[in-house]
Amino acid sequence: MVDRQNRVGSKFGGGGVSSAQQSERERKDRLRELALETIDLAKDPYLMRNHLGTYECKLCLTLHTNEANYLSHTQGKKHQAGLARRAAMEAKIARQKGETDVMLPLRATTSLTSSQTKVKIGRPGYEVSKSRDPDTNARCLTFELHYPELDDARTRQPRHRFMSAYEQRVETPPDGNYQYLLIACEPYETVGFKIPNEKIDKGEGRFVTHWDVEAKVFTLTLHFLG
Ligand SMILES: [Zn+2]
């Protein structure tokens, strides 16, 4: 399947250019400049140069006459949607394999000795998302934990704490590149997330927890400093 609009040799029609077309072209030029600054073509896994000397997008199966045309394509809806689909698929596969690149859930055993005799009702469901602050580019993690079976959500709410690699007893040998974020809410099991051992921004609005009593969902958002 090849996108006809991007076939080699296709050109804009000649003749007068309306102001709408003009501004659209200027917009594309700006996008192209932006793309040229931020994309390293050598590292783009979807760009392929074919034997005719033109370029192909392996993600969208489109043809492009030159690098700039390809870059412009990468800023378009079709390619962006393709990237989003691919990312969602990879995240799903990673979840099925029980891994993500910076963190993994683990059972926390430290500091639970007093409550280990109580009946546990399993782990809460959770989602972790990574993003970047649009202004400072600081890395941001959001943890969302679900406690649907909790009876007394109004009086009991999840608590969190950070633990160093040397304090925890689950992973040996300890790896000082990581720290652990523990989230506890009995009778659920405490879960621990392994995150980079970097300073966490405790400034206003930078570290936020929220307990939704109705939905029984706990959300924690954190930003790393620097
Ligand atoms: Zn593409």
Overall structural domain count: 2
Q: What's the helix count?
A: 3
Unreliable stretches:
1-15, 99-104, 107-118
Beta fraction: 25-35%
List keywords for this structure.
single chain; 226 residues; alpha+beta; Immunoglobulin-like; 4-stranded antiparallel β-sheet; 3 helices; 11 strands; binds zinc ion; Znf_C2H2_sf
Description of the molecule:
With 226 residues, the protein is of the alpha+beta class. The protein has two domains: 4-82, no CATH class; 105-223, Immunoglobulin-like (Sandwich), CATH 2.60.40. The chain is built from three helices and eleven strands; from the N terminus they run αβββααββββββββ. It has helices at residues 19-38, 67-74, 77-96; strands at residues 47-49, 55-57, 62-64, 105-107, 125-132, 139-146, 159-164, 178-184, 191-196, 207-212, 217-223. The strands form three sheets. A four-stranded antiparallel sheet has the order 4-9-8-7, with no helix packed on it. Strands 5-6-11-10 form a four-stranded antiparallel sheet, with no helix packed on it. A three-stranded antiparallel sheet has the order 1-2-3, covered by helices on one side. A hairpin with a 6-residue loop joins β5 and β6. Mean pLDDT is 77; it is low at 1-15, 99-104 and 107-118. It binds zinc ion. Residues 46, 57, 59-60, 62, 73, 79, 82 line the site of zinc ion. Zinc ion (ZN) is lined by residues 46, 57, 59-60, 62, 73, 79, 82.
